[in-house]
Amino acid sequence: MKRLLITGAGGNLGKICREGLKGYANVIRLSDISPMDPAGPNEEVVQCDLSDRAAVIDLTKDIDGIIHLGGISIEAAFDDLLQANLAGTYNLYEGARQNGVKRIMFASSNHAIGFHKRTTKLDDTSEQRPDSLYGVTKCYGEAMASYYFDKFDVETVSVRIGSCFEKPKDRRMLSTWMSPRDFISLMKAIFNAPMTGHLVMYGVSDNTSKWWSNDHADFLGWKPQDSSEQFRAEIEATFPPEDRHDPAVIYQGGGFAAKGHFED
Asked: Which residues belong to the signal peptide in this entry (predicted)?
C-alpha cells in the first residue's frame, strides 16, 4: 500500500495504529481534529475537522485505504454527534468516492447492538439494537458503508469494536476485550484481503467468554492470538460479582444500556 489514511489518529485506537502499523504503508497520513505529535519518518500529519466536507475531500486525495476511527467515541449530545459522527462519516465516504479510495475500515461499536442480552450469541445477521445515541450513529455508519458498497463499489469492513486496551478493566471486558496486538493484525488482514465487500464483524480477541461470532469472516484469515483469560483471576479479585438483575449486566452494552437518555 502506498498511502494509508488514519482518521482519529490522536485517540486511543489511533495511537495504537500509528505505532503498530509503522512500515505497513509507504506513507501513513494521520488526521485528527486535535493537534498531534509531529510527523515521523514516512508519516504525514493533517489536522482536519470531519464536519468540513471540503477539507475531508482534500484529506482523502491520493489515498489507497482508510482506517476511519474519527468522531466522538462516547455518548454525547445529539448535536455534537450530528457533526462528528453523522456528517463526518458521510463526508469521509463522499471523499473516498470522489477520490477513488476502494477500501475502508469503519470503526463501528458493540454499542450498535448493545440492547441484545448477554445470553444471545450474535453474528453479522443479528439486528442492530443500539443502546445509546452514540450507538445509533454507528448503525448509521454501517448503513452508509453498505450504501457506498452497493452503489459505488467502495468496500468496507465495519468492525463492531469491543474494548481495546492493554488489559481488561472490569468483568464485562473479559468478554469484550480485544488486545492491541489483535487489533493491529485485524487491520492488516482487512487491507491484505483480495476482497471484502461490505462486511460487518466483531473486534474481539479469542476470549473464553464470547458473545459474538466471526465465523462468517473466516475468509479474511484473521486469527486473534490473545485472550482475556490471563487476566480473569486479577479482575475477579478486584471487582465484586455482578448483579444479574442489573441492566448493565443483562445487556451487552453494559452501562450504556443501563443509563437513561443522555439529553434528559
From this structure: none
